[in-house]
Amino acid sequence: MEGRYVNIVIPGRREYLTLCEVEVTGQALGNTALTGDSYHLTRGNVIQSSLYGNDVPERAIDGNRASNYGQGSCSVTNNDLKPWWRLDLLKTYQINTVTITNRGDCCPERINGAEIRIGNSLNDNGNDNPRCAVISSIKAGTSQTFACNRMEGRYVNIVIPGRREYLTLCEVEVTGQALECK
């Protein structure tokens, strides 16, 4: 089916509609860079500086904003010097926003000072790419969106430079457009 909107309704009666998660897949028609439409770009390969137990980097792009560690939806590194997490979008996009959900049950200050970096280089594991934003703080269990103003890149990195820390990401959501073919 083709369309711009997806509606979910209970027709013909007054009722509560409870949706815990909705995922829509499909293909864009035409050139997305010309339409200006923004798409969630959380499909791709993820890697991080280390693994804390079984807290794999894929948990940060599972579509679940659950922020309590025990719910199993957060990626966590070891207590690394300059810990990092990287999403490989598999091709270059113009990135509009990056939204990060912080851990809610403990230690929200760990994210303070983290940087969002976007680009096409893998120098220093992608941490040398241009900076979109510095995260001063994100309240426990909440999500914050950072505008990246159409920065171009294949890689989206989150890195805590200059100190030893655990990097915990409970969800990372990226929006942007595919680059126009030349």
TrEMBL record:
Q: What does this protein do?
A: Acts as a defensive agent. Recognizes blood group fucosylated oligosaccharides including A, B, H and Lewis B-type antigens. Does not recognize Lewis A antigen and has low affinity for monovalent haptens.
Name of the protein in question: Fucolectin tachylectin-4 pentraxin-1 domain-containing protein
Family the entry assigns = Belongs to the fucolectin family.
> Which PANTHER family does UniProt cross-reference here?
FTP DOMAIN-CONTAINING PROTEIN (PTHR45713), SI:CH211-215K15.4 (PTHR45713:SF8)
Q: Quote the subcellular location field of this record.
A: Secreted
Q: Does the keyword Protein biosynthesis apply?
A: no
| GO biological process terms held by the UniProt record | regulation of cellular defense response; regulation of complement activation, lectin pathway
Gene3D superfamilies per the record?
Answer: Galactose-binding domain-like
